[in-house]
C-alpha cells in the first residue's frame, strides 16, 4: 500500500530526525521564545502509586482506526500521541503493546464489556496515537480522583509497566494520593501533561514513554549540524505560523508540512540554498483541518529536524 509506505517512510524520517516530542510542550504554552529543547529531558516513565487500580479487564480488543472511543461516545474528544523510547531516550521501541482503559465522561468504567478499553501498538518507529474522550472523575473515598487514563505498557520481550496519565490544571491532582507524588518511584510529575484545545473541539496531548526495552531507531542520530528549525510561532496557531530555520551547508532544502497520515499538505521551501538563516510563513487555507502537523526540514533529502505544530 503506497500510503502505508509513505507514512512508514515519513515516520522513519521523523524518528531519525530525533527531536524529542518534548518540544511540543514548549509549543503548547504558545510561547515560541523558549529555547529549542532538542532531545529534551529524558524521564523514565514511572509507576503509578495506585498501580492498575480495581477496574482493569484483561484481553481488551485492538483499537481500530486509532479510535478508543467510538464517535458516538459522549464527552470531549481527546487525542493522545507520543513515542515509546528506551529508558535513556536514545532509541525508539516498536511494537510495544499499549493497553489502555479509562472511565467514561461520567466517571464510570465499563466493567462488563470493553467500552473505552483497548490495545494499540507503537509503530515501526515507536510512535503511537489514539483518540478517546476525556475521562470523567469518580469518587475515591471522600474525594474525586483526577481525570486519568490507565496504561499497561509492554515492550517486546520486556516487563509490563503499569501506570496512569493525568492532565495539567486538574484541580483534583493536589489532593490525590497518587497524582500528587513528586519524588521517588511513584513520581507523577512527568505523567501530568498539558492538553491543547483545538478549534475542532478536541483536546490534544503528547506523552512520550521511556521504558525498559530494545531500541531500534536511534533518536540520538540527530543531523542538526546540517540544519535546524529554530522556531515555529505562534504554536498553536490559527491561520498563520512563522517559521525560522537555518541551513548550515549549501544544499537542496525542503521545508514541508506533513499531516499525521504522512501526507504533505504544504511545501514552504524547495530550492537549492546557500548556508544562512531563513524565515517563511505558512498561511493555511480552509481546507486544512485543525490538529497536529509535523514541520520537517530536509537537507539533500535527509530529514534533519522536525517540529510538531498544532493548528487550532
Ligand atoms: Fe481509574
List the helices and strands and how they pair.
Blueprint lengths: L1 H16 L4 H7 L48 E10 L10 E5 L15 E5 L5 E7 L5 E2 L2 E2 L3 E7 L6 E7 L24 E2 L2 E2 L5 E4 L2 E3 L15 E7 L6 E8 L3 E9 L4 E10 L2 E8 L7 E9 L2 E10 L1
Parallel strand pairs: 1-11, 1-12, 8-9
Antiparallel strand pairs: 1-4, 2-3, 2-7, 5-6, 7-8, 10-11, 13-14, 14-17, 15-16, 15-18, 18-19
Q: Which properties best describe this structure?
A:
19 strands, mainly beta, five-stranded mixed β-sheet, Protocatechuate 3,4-Dioxygenase, subunit A, Immunoglobulin-like, binds fe (ii) ion, 7% helix, 2 helices
Quick summary:
Helix content is 7%, strand content 38%. It is built from two helices and 19 strands.
Structure commentary:
This protein is 7% helix and 38% strand. The protein is mainly β. The protein folds into 2 domains: 40-211, Sandwich (Protocatechuate 3,4-Dioxygenase, subunit A); 227-311, Macroglobulin (MG2) domain (Immunoglobulin-like, Sandwich). Strands 1, 4, 10, 11 and 12 form a 5-stranded mixed beta sheet that branches. The site of fe (ii) ion has 4 residues, from strand 7.
Helix content percent band? under 10%
The CATH H-level superfamily of the largest domain is Aromatic compound dioxygenase
Q: Provide the number of structural domains.
A: 2
**Secondary-structure arrangement, i.e. CATH architecture of the largest domain:** Sandwich
One letter per element, helices H and strands E, the order comes to HHEEEEEEEEEEEEEEEEEEE
Computed structural class:
mainly beta
**Biggest sheet overview:** 5 strands, mixed
Give the quaternary arrangement of the chains: single chain
N/C terminus separation:
31 Å
* Bound ligands: fe (ii) ion
Query: What portion of the residues fall into strands of 2 or more residues?
Result: 35-45%
Shape: globular
**Structural Rg:** 20 Å
Q: Count of helical segments?
A: 2
pLDDT under 50 segments (min length 5)? Answer: 1-40
Strand element count? 19
CATH class of the largest domain: Mainly Beta
CATH topology of the largest domain: Protocatechuate 3,4-Dioxygenase, subunit A
* Chain-averaged pLDDT: 83
Amino acid at each position: 500500500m503506497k500510503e502505508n509506505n509513505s507514512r512508514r517512510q515519513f515516520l522513519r524520517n521523523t524518528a531519525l530526525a530525533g527531536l524529542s516530542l518534548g518540544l511540543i510542550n514548549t509549543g503548547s504554552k504558545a510561547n515560541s521564545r523558549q529555547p529549542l529543547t532538542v532531545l529534551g529531558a529524558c524521564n523514565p516513565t514511572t509507576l503509578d502509586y495506585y498501580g492498575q487500580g480495581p477496574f482493569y479487564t484483561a484481553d481488551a480488543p485492538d483499537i481500530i482506526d486509532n479510535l478508543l472511543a467510538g464517535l458516538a461516545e459522549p464527552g470531549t474528544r481527546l487525542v493522545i500521541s507520543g513515542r515509546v523510547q528506551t529508558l535513556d531516550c536514545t532509541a525508539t521501541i516498536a511494537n510495544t503493546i499499549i493497553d489502555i482503559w479509562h472511565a467514561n465522561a461520567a466517571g464510570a468504567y465499563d466493567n462488563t464489556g470493553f467500552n473505552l478499553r483497548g490495545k494499540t501498538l507503537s509503530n515501526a518507529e515507536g510512535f503511537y496515537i489514539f483518540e478517546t474522550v476525556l475521562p470523567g472523575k469518580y469518587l475515591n473515598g471522600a474525594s474525586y480522583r483526577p481525570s486519568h487514563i490507565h496504561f499497561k505498557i509492554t515492550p517486546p520481550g520486556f516487563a509490563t509497566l503499569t501506570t496512569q496519565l493525568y492532565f495539567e490544571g486538574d484541580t483534583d491532582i493536589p489532593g490525590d494520593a497518587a497524582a500528587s507524588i513528586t519524588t521517588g518511584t511513584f513520581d507523577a510529575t512527568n505523567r501530568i501533561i498539558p492538553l491543547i484545545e483545538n478549534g475542532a473541539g478536541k483536546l490534544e496531548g503528547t506523552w512520550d514513554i521511556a521504558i525498559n526495552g530494545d531500541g531500534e531507531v536511534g533518536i540520538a542520530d540527530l543531523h542538526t549540524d546540517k540544519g535546524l528549525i529554530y522556531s515555529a510561532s505562534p504554536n498553536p496557531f490559527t491561520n498563520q505560523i512563522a517559521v525560522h530555520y537555518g541551513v548550515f551547508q549549501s544544499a537542496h532544502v525542503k521545508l514541508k508540512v506533513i499531516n499525521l497520515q504522512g501526507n504533505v499538505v504544504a511545501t514552504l521551501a524547495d530550492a537549492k540554498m546557500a548556508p544562512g538563516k531563513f524565515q517563511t510563513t505558512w498561511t493555511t487555507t480552509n481546507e486544512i483541518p485543525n490538529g497536529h502537523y509535523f514541520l520537517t526540514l530536509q537537507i539533500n533529502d535527509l530529514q534533519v529536524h522536525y517540529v510538531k505544530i498544532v493548528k487550532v
